[in-house]
């Protein structure tokens, strides 16, 4: 029963602290990324074929990979509206099927319920801070989704832990935040200053999420343990060590008021390889673990990887991918999730490193790290 919880500052499953790799398969439920039959304004709800989904889950399970993070509602207002507001029963039926498959394979799903901060407010003509306003329709829908999903699956052994969302802090302090836009999928043509999400709002959202989840899913995850863990993914790579900033204060400001049980970051540190302030990913993660330990929180690397397009003068992208993979393992974080392992027929050549990818070398690098994580 791979239900994760936090106890004594450690991420545990079944009474034991874990140390393992998992994967991101964002389209595990809805085909909202590239590939045949992906979502579009004409077909905003395209459920991932059961055979493709279950085949990937079996391959992962056979290779000792059990944690799989995904985006249940895709990442656009239209995908969420069509799935949850207009076709709720068929959507939940597909979700039920996914959970049953994961249960049979002893997998640990990580549903990132609000993967994009930009999905809900545009549905009601509201700005993004409405997510934290109890008088708004956005707030009401977040509470409704949380209640529905957590209530429905709180008794399942296939939910590894609950995640609020994904990188909502990506444009802190930036006027007219540069969140991606897709007007044909329900976003505004451009974001304005009124859509800025200051840090205090981000923290309010995680606090409200934790409170709502705990009302519903409050039973011990294992014997007399605390309940199932909660998380929310942060843009961790922005805080590289530098002689020009107080790193300790930055970490405390960004992460200490995150109300969830973990410190979950997405440190795409490979992108800073040639930056003079780059510290080395292993050092960065190790120091972050030390800071998180003071708050009795484990560090989870919610996403890591290197695009095949990314090149640096002193290394090709495959070598950089291997370096990042090894540094994540050697930092001794307890859980690290590769971005990304897609289902069959994905046409994303830059971020697909799974069994169906064109780049099989990276898939085998990753499997080797999965098998030998304790030796790295």
Automatic annotation (TrEMBL):
InterPro entries (alphabetical): GH
Domain of life: Bacteria
Annotated protein name in UniProt: Cellulase (Glycosyl hydrolase family 5)
Organism of origin: Rhodoblastus acidophilus
Phylogenetic lineage: Bacteria, Pseudomonadati, Pseudomonadota, Alphaproteobacteria, Hyphomicrobiales
